[in-house]
Structures are given as C-alpha cells and as structure tokens.
Amino acid sequence: MAVTADEITVPDLTDEERQVLARSLLEWGGPAHCTDALAVAMDFGSAADLFEEARRLRLLIKEDRPLTRRDWRRALVSFEIVFASDVFGSGWDWSATTGRSDEETIRLLRSVQRKIARAARIHEI
Fold it and tell me: Is 8 helix (H, G, I), strand (E, B) or coil?
C-alpha cells in the first residue's frame, strides 16, 4: 500500500495508546449506538459508513500505519464520544466491554489527543 503525501504517521503513539484507540472504534459495533446525524457530525457519511471506516481505521492504527489528517481526526473524535457518552457511546459499559478503567482510559485519551494534535495538526483542518 503506497503512502500518499497527506498521510501522516504519529510515531510516538505507544502500543497501549494504539490498542485503546483501535478498540474504541470497535465499540461502535457493540454497546454504542450511532445515528446517521452523529456519524455525519464526526465526518463520516452515515452510521453505515462509520462501521465500514472503523474496520479500515482499526487495522491501520493497530499496524502503526499512516492515516490522513482527516482519518486521525475522525478516529480521535469517535474515541472521545464512544468513551464518554452514555447516550450514544459505551459510557458506563466502557470498562466492562474493554477491560480498561475510566481512569486508565482518560489518561490514555489525553495522551492520544496531545500526540495526534501535535503530529497531524487536526485543529487546522
């Protein structure tokens, strides 16, 4: 798979950070409930598109492959929502379905936010 000019690697993500980010995308197929409107707000075409893209993004993230700035932003915002929201995301079920405590997850989330923002400049998109 050839890397395009707008694809970016976040080289300092730890294995644990990649694992939790990839796992957060899997949550959309479990306890989380995404509507088309929410998927569009996260920059996916629809809920079905989110599910399809989540499979692709999970694989790339787990393999430490480059993503576009847009894909980094979509992966991050979906992590933020699926972790924190009890209405749309995993919310209270997060620790039961992922095996990670809220405290551990928020520590990892904050680290992932900083690293992705720094490497991919996602706030500039």
Answer: strand
**6: its two tokens:** 């707008």
- Spell out where the chain has E strands: 7-8, 67-68
Give 2: exposed, middle or buried? Use CB within 10 Å, 0-12, 13-18, 19+: exposed
* Total residue length of the chain: 125
- Per the structure block, which two tokens stand in for 42? 């996260």
From CA 81, how far away is CA 38, in angstroms rounded? 10
Convert the pLDDT of each residue in 9-50 to its tens digit.
776 899 999 999 999 999 998 889 999 999 999 999 999 999
Q: Which pTM was predicted?
A: 0.90
pLDDT tens per residue across span 61-114 = 999 999 999 999 999 999 999 999 999 999 999 999 999 999 999 999 999 999
